[in-house]
Every structure is written in C-alpha cells, then in structure tokens.
Design a protein that fits this description.
The complex is a heterodimer. Chain A is mostly helical. Chain A has eight helices and two strands; from the N terminus they run ααααααβααβ. Classes of the chains: A mainly alpha, B little secondary structure.
C-alpha cells in the first residue's frame, strides 16, 4: 500500500458515493447511463470472486464488499426505484460491441487459463471501457449536470492515481502487472478529453457542462 | 501448477 494507491481507492469510493447520493437525493437518474453502471457491477462481480478464495487484508475485503454493494444499489436505483427518470433513449450505446471483444480478449491474453483468472482479466479489460456508454450519452445529449461531471472527475482521478501507484510499485518492489497497467493507461486516456472540458468549463463556470 | 495470482489491487 502506498499513498497513490490509497488516494486512488478513496477517489474511486468518493466517485461511487457521489453518484449514488446524487440519484438518491434527487430521486432521479437523468443523464446517467444505466448501461455503464451495469458494466461496473459486472466488473466488480467478476473481479471480486476471489473474496471466496483468497484473503488479502481486512481493508481489501471491506472495500470489495462496499464497492459491490454500492454498484448493485446504484443499478437498483436506476432500473427499479427511479426507473421513470431513466433516459433510455439517450443511453443507446451498444454494449455488445464492448462485451464481445473484451470477453474474447480475456480468453486470449491472460496470466493463466483458469476460470477465476479469465474472469479477473475480463473485469480488468471491461473496466477500461465501461465508462464509454456514459461518455457517449454526454456526447449525444451535449450536456451533463455538474454533479455528474464531479463523479466522472473522481473516477478518472482514481485511474490516474493508480498509474502513479504502478510507477511507484515498479520502482520500490519491482511489481509490474502488464494487463492491469496497459488497461489502466487505456482507461485513463478515455478521460483526458473529459478532464479538459471539466477544468475549462465546469470549474470556471457553474451549472451544467455543455459541449462545444 | 497454475495457482491463480494474488491480485491485491481493487
């Protein structure tokens, strides 16, 4: 554990809590991609199956359980509780275009051809692209509420901090997880355009982020 | 032989 990893995990947690509270308090999931949230729930489910097979630390276990619970609670709010506020027409990204290549790649490029390893690899690849339906939705509608952009900012920051964590771990313990690092770099790149808009539009102005 | 790796990151 290092400071980048800890801050990264905290940003990830903050992002998920921001989204959950936004939907819960406003009783609306307008502007939120339910598809991205289902993909994230799938990411956590397939990655954290090792909860049943290996114990790493109390911190590790608690965070995994919290992420899983919040991910499913968010999906529940979007698709059941506040379903009437869900913009399904704008959430039109075809997730099969992500799931099929990601599933295929996880069979081809993994550390071990074992069920849990393939599912872990699948979750890493899927996480790197899971935000695309949300970014697509914002591009399509041309705007996002500022609270939604704060969510995306913390989610992107989490990924960027994990990159710093890997640089740190490489130099201090020689740790290098090729699959996680390559996917992490890809994932962070997706946020760069958003980061630019966030700093130039949201933080300088107020209210919604509108695309040029 | 193929022990699953211990993935300690979240």
């Amino acid at each position: 554990m290092n400071i980048f990893r800890l801050l990264g995990d905290m940003c990830h947690l903050v992002a998920i809590i921001i989204l959950f509270l936004k939907i819960w308090r406003s009783k609306s999931c307008a502007g939120i991609s339910g598809k991205s949230q289902v993909l994230f729930a799938l990411v956590f489910t397939t990655r954290y199956l090792d909860l049943f097979t290996s114990f790493i630390s109390v911190y590790n276990t608690v965070m995994k359980v919290v992420f899983l619970v919040l991910a499913y609670a968010t999906v529940y709010l979007i698709y059941l509780r506040f379903r009437s506020t869900y913009n399904s027409e704008s959430d039109s990204f075809r997730v099969e275009f992500l799931l099929v290549p990601v599933a295929g790649l996880s069979f081809l490029e993994n550390y071990a051809f074992a069920p849990l390893e393939i599912l872990w690899t699948f979750s890493i690849y899927l996480e790197s692209v899971a935000i695309l339906p949300q970014l697509f939705m914002i591009t399509k509608t041309g705007e996002a509420e500022s609270i939604t952009t704060h969510y995306l900012f913390f989610l992107g920051l989490y990924r960027a901090l994990y990159l710093a964590n890997w640089v740190w771990r490489y130099h201090t313990e020689g740790f290098f997880d090729q699959i996680a690092v390559v996917s992490g770099v890809v994932q962070t790149i997706f946020y760069c355009d958003f980061f630019y808009l966030y700093f130039t539009k949201v933080l300088r102005g107020s209210g919604k982020m509108t695309l040029p | 032989a193929d022990e699953p790796a211990n993935h300690d990151e979240l």
